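Protocol step 4 of 6: structure prediction from sequence.
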Amino acid sequence: MTVPFALLPAGATAWGAPPADREPIHRETERLTLTALLAGLRAGRPAVATVTGPPGFGQNGLVRWAAHRAERSGLRVLRVRAARFEREVRHGALARLLAPLDGTRDDARGGPSDGPSDGAAARPVRDGGRWGEPPRPAGRPELPGLAELASAARQRPTLLAVENAHWLDAGSLGWLSALVRRSAELPVAVLAGGSGVTADGPDWLSLPAGAPDQVVARELRPAPLDAAAAAVEVARFCGRAGEPYFTAVLHEVAAGHPAVIRESLRQFAALGHEPVAVRAPELRAIGHGAMGDHVARVLSGLGAEVAAVVRTLAVCGELLDFAAVCRLAGVAAPGEARLRAAVEATGFVRPSAGRPRLDRVARVRVLEEMTAAARTVLHAEAAELAHRAAADDQDVAALLLGARATGAPWAAAVLRRAGLTALRQGEPDRATGLLARALEQEGDPRTRGRLSLELAVAELLSAPEAGDRRLGGIVRGPETPAALRVRSADLALGWGDAEAMRRSVAEVLPASRGRERDDLIALYWSADATPPDGAASFPPEVPALPDPPASPAQAGVRAWHLALAGDGPERVRELARTALAGRAAVGDEAGGGLFQPRLAACKALMLTDDHDEAEAGLTTLLAELTDRHLLVGLAPVLAVRAELRLRGGRTAAAERDLGAAERTLRPVGRNAATLAYLRAVRIVVELESGRLGTAGALAAAPLPDAAQSGDHWPGLLFARALVASAEARPQEARELLLEAGRRLLNRHHVNPALLPWRSLAARACRELGDEQEARRLNRAELQLARRWGVPSALAWAELCAGPAEGPDRPAALRRIVRTAAAGPAGPGGPVHTRALAEQCAAELAQGGRRAAAAALAELSAFEDATRPAGPVATRAHRLAQELASSARSCGGAHTLWDTLTPAERRTARLVGRGHTNRSAAGVLAVSTRTVELRLSRTYLKLGITGRQELCALLRATEGR
C-alpha cells in the first residue's frame, strides 16, 4: 500500500513522494495508463512509454510519481535526470542510470542525481563489454551494462525512469532505443519524460516506435488545464473557491499552463488576497509576470538553433512563412520540419498552417532578452525579406521602425505609404512615427520636402505645436522650393497656428519673387479677409491685394473681400470663377490651386446664391484634400458645405456634412475658429430639425477663449440668438444680435447675406415694444440687400421689412415668393419656404382659401416641410389645420381636395377603401415608401392626422 502524498514530510525529496504542490493532479488519464503499465511490468510484461509536452506541463512529475509507485509495489527502479551540460558526454546519463547495478553509487536505493557528484558517474563508456573494458571485436556487439541489467531484471522487474529525456546524449538515447528493441524477453520498462524543444539533438520521442509487438508502447501528452481544473487550483492555493470571473481571468492569462497557473496563485495567495472579481487586475499582472518568467526559463534551456528561430519569430513571425524565418535565423533548409516541431513544443508558440505565432507575453519577453543591437539587425534583415515577399506596407514598416536607417530606396517609400495609410485610418500618432522615419531614410531633396509637409500634417493632429513649428520652418527655410513654401503656408493658415504663419509669410515676402510672391500675398490676406480698425498694426512689408488680382489665388481672396463688403455680385462671381479655374503655381507637381483662396471663392459664390458652383468647388476641394492626404483641412471645407446646403433647404444633407466635419475635427479639436463655426452651424441644424433642447445645450456649452477673436464668433452669437428667440427670450436675443453686428461692422463685414442680424434684431425689438428701432434696422438691411441684389438676401429683407398685416400683405408676399424662387438657392430654400408659409397665412386671413391652399400645397413639396418637428413643418401643419377648419365651416372641403396631386388622390382613395400601405403600393406599382410619403403630404395639405379623418373627408367629396 502506497503512502498518500499529503502524509509525507514537507522535506521529502524529489525521488520520494512529490510534495503536495507537485502532485500530478488533473492527470487522471495519464496516471491510469502508467498504473496499468506498472501492473503489467510486475507481471513480467515489458513496456516503453514517453510523457511529453511543453515545458511546465508536469512530465517529470508524472515520471517521479510512476517511479514512486513502482518502488512501493516492489519493483526495482533505476532513475536519472538528464542534464544539459552532459549532452556532449558520451553515455553520461547512461552511466548514472546504471550506476546502482555495478556499485558505483553508495545509495543502494538509487537516489536522485541531477549531475555527476564525483566525476565517476560521468566517465565515458566504450561500446562493447563492461564499463572500462575494451569493446568486443566480433559478432553482434553487446550493449554495455545490458548483462547486468538483464540479470537484475530477472531477479526483480525493473523500471528505467528518465527525466528531462530531451537532454539525453546520443549514446545514452541510442542505448535506450536498442534496449527497447531487445526487451521482448526482459521484464523491463522504460519511462521517459521531457519536452521536444531541443531540435538540435536526437529524437527521444521515437522510443515507442522501435518497440517490438510484444512490448507495450504508450505515448502520453498531458493537455493544458481546463477551466474546471483551474478552479480546483484556485481553491487549493487560496483556501476557498474563486469567483467565476477571477477563475476565467486566471485561465485566460495562463492559457491553461499548469506551472504558470500554480506560480500565479502562489504569488497571489502570498499577498493575502481573496480570489474575487475585484482582484482580477492584480491577478492579471501577476499572471503576466509568471508567464514571462516561465518563457525566460524555457529560453535559457533552448538549443542554439531553436533559440535563433524563436527570436526571429518574435521579430517577424507574423509576416514571413516558417521557411523564410528559418533562413533568416541561419538554419539550413533540411531542418525546418524538425525545428517547427521544436518551437511549437515550447508551449508559447501557436501552430498555424504556414506561420507559427508567438503569444504576446512571450514575444515581449523574447525581445527583452535580446540586445538592442541584435534586435536592430534582425529587424532590418526581416524587413528586407518581408519587402521581397511583397508583404503589406504596414507590416514591413513596423519592422523598419525597429531597425536603423538602411538607406535603401524602397524603405523610405514603404514607410511613407504606411504613414499615409495610417493617417487616412485616423491614426495620427502612428503616421507621425512612420513619416518621421521615412524622412530619416530619404535622401532625395525633392522627396524630402514633400515628406516634410506630410509629416507636418500628421503632427498637426498628433502633436500640434510640433506641426506648427515644422510648417513654419518649411516656410522660412531659405532652401525651400517655392511651391512647397506656398503649399505649407496654405495648409497652416487653414488649420495650424494662423497668426504665427502670417508672421512667417510676412518675414519671407521681401525675398520672394514672381508667382510665389503673388500667392503668398493672397494667403496672407485670406487669413483675415478684411482687416479691423487696427489695420495699421499689420506689417508694412505686406502689400494690399492688388486690383485687378495678379493670380487666381488673389482673385479668390478678393472675391471674398468684395462679398463681405456687399458690393458688386457680378464682379464677385467673375473673380470667384477665376480662382476656381486657376492653375497651380509653377513647380507644384500635385496640380490644382491653393486651398484657402479657393475656399474663399466658394464662400463668395455661396453669398451670391450660386450654390451649384459653390458646391462643385467644395466637393473638388474635399476630393483633392483626401487624395493628397491633407485630412486636417477637411473639417473647414465640410463645415462650409454644410452651411451651403442648409441655406439651400437641404437640412439632412447639411447634417451629414456636419457630422463628418465633427468626426474629422474630434482627434485634436484645437482650431478654435473652426470649432466656433461648426458649433454655430450645428445649432441652426438642430433648430431646423425641431430639437430645441439640444440646440439650447449647444448654445450654452463653453468654447476656448481663443474662439472669441476669430472670424466665426459673430456667427456663433447669431446662432445663440436664434435659440434665445425660440425660447422666448427677446431681450437676450437682441443683445446677442447687436453684439454680433458690432463685431461684423468692426471688420467692415456689412453684407446682410452673410448674417441677417439686423432683421432678427428688429423682430426682437418689436417684441420688446421698440418699434422705431425695429424699423431702422429693417430699413438698413433692406437698403444693403438691394445694394447687394442677390435674390435670397433681398427676399429675406423684404419679408422682414414688409407690412405685418393689411390688404396689401398677400400681394407683397406673392412678390417676395417669386423673388426668393428666382434665385439659384430657391425654390425650397429657407427664405422661399418661410415666405410661402407667410403667404398662406396672409391669404387665409384675407379669406383667400384657394390661394392659401395652393401656397400650402407648394410648401408641402419641400424637404423641410416634411421634417416632423422642424419649424417649417410645424408651421405648415398648423396652417393646414386652420385651412381645413375654415373650409369645413364654409362647406368647402372640395377646395382642400383640389390641392392634392392626381397621384395623391389615387393613393388616398385606395387607403380610404381599406387598403394597407403595402396593398396600395401593389395596386399603384410603387414602393411602400412612396405610399407613405404621399399620405404624409396628403395629411399635411388636408390638415388631418390620420386615416379616419381621411375617410371622413372622402365621404364629403364623394361623387367628384
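Step 5 (inspection) to follow. Residues 1-22, 104-141, 529-536, 584-591 have pLDDT under 50 and may be disordered.
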